[in-house]
Design brief:
Number of helices: 11
CATH class of the largest domain: Alpha Beta
Shape: elongated
Radius of gyration: 21 Å
CATH superfamily of the largest domain: Aldolase class I
CATH architecture of the largest domain: Alpha-Beta Barrel
Strand order of the largest sheet: 7-8-9-10-11-12-13-14
Number of domains: 2
Order of helices and strands: EHEEHEEEEHEHEHEHEHEHEHHEHE
Helix content: 25-40%
Strand content: 15-25%
Number of strands: 15
């Protein structure tokens, strides 16, 4: 249920309502707006008697049952967009971030080269896979902890925060020790033990939509992270499986406005995995941003033809530069901007 407090309610009265929420066995989530404070009470569906109990409290203006099965992800609990902030920029609320880098970390030279040029051309986060869950067990599986160490060196050299994938609950602590953001890939989007462990890590979580997931299922997966008390989740539409085979997956551009009508969480696009071919990545990136996406995660490699994974979809530096140039031209027309480092704002 959603508890709406009266305008002007002070901190002591807010805390008293929060304690009462805890006393009756619910978990409180406080959202303070400019004029109104909301308290989401998360738990089993409230009884009419419980709703009336909270309505009778002096600071309470009204109590509304939350209809969505995804409670913490819902706009009913947090009606304002969540903005996630990093030293290099922010995502959400009109701020757009780009995470870019190679599909897989292959060497220090390769990763540093990519990190330097993605930063130069406006990306605010470095992506790179140290652990690679692949369709074939014979494909490149990543460098493991050595890859994490390379990402950490690239972060030190460029200042870019790092997002990298974690593929099992047992890896969460290890990956969290190196990464700034934990990525949950499409194949693990309903690995609930992994989602819970990632939620407990204290790191922001970038959650990709599973290739056969409905949007409600996607939000319920995010709820597993949020339910651990970790509200820093980015949702990523990366293409779903349809009958069409000309692209690797079908980018569900409509997912962006639909999700933004349902949740306060930032919504990103992964045009690389949707396209499967570098020639179409920029067009899909622009389409996602035009639909309202708060960010992009894009694959780029200094020498894509030599990449050990997903070579066909990785942009080279010139293609990445061209994509960023077009993004910078598009965003002002949408009333948004490519986010800047905090010290530049």
């Amino acid at each position: 249920m959603l508890i709406i407090l009266k305008h002007g309610t002070g901190p002591k009265e807010i805390e008293a309502v929060v304690e009462e929420v805890r006393r009756v066995g619910y978990r409180p989530h406080v959202s303070e707006g400019e004029h109104t404070t909301l308290i989401g009470a998360i738990g089993k569906g409230p009884t009419p008697e419980l709703i009336e109990h909270f309505r009778a409290l002096e600071p309470v203006q009204d109590v509304i049952p939350i209809s969505k099965p995804y409670k913490l992800a819902s706009l009913e609990v947090s009606p304002r967009p969540t903005v996630l902030r990093f030293p290099t920029g922010a995502t959400g609320g009109g701020e757009v971030m780009v995470a870019a880098g190679p599909c897989g970390v292959e060497s220090l030279e390769q990763t540093l080269t990519a990190a330097r040029y993605v930063k130069q051309h406006g990306a605010q986060m470095l992506r790179g896979g140290a652990f690679k869950p692949r369709t074939s067990p014979y494909s490149f599986q990543g460098l493991g902890e050595a890859g994490l160490e390379i990402l950490a060196q690239a972060r030190q050299a460029t200042g870019l925060p790092v997002v990298t994938e974690v593929v099992s609950p047992e890896q969460v602590d290890l990956v969290a020790a190196y990464a700034d953001v934990l990525q949950i890939g499409a194949r693990n989007a309903q690995n609930f033990a992994l989602l819970q462990a990632a939620g407990q890590s204290g790191r922001p979580v970038l959650l990709k939509r599973g290739m056969s997931m409905t949007l409600e299922e996607f939000l319920m997966s995010a709820e597993y992270v949020l339910a651990q008390g970790n509200m820093r989740v980015i949702l990523v539409e990366r293409g779903i499986r349809t009958f069409e085979r000309s692209t690797r997956f079908t980018l569900d551009v409509s997912a962006v406005p639909v999700l933004k009508s349902l949740t306060h969480l930032p919504v990103w696009i992964d045009p690389s995995h949707a396209a499967g071919k570098r020639d179409w990545v920029t067009a899909l990136a622009l389409a996602g941003l035009a639909a309202g996406a708060d960010g992009l995660i894009v694959e780029t490699h200094p020498e894509p033809e030599k990449a050990q994974s997903d070579a066909a979809q990785q942009l080279n530096e010139a293609q990445f530069t061209e994509m960023m140039s077009r993004i910078k031209a598009l965003l002002p027309a949408l009333g948004r901007r490519l986010s800047q480092p905090l010290e530049m704002v």
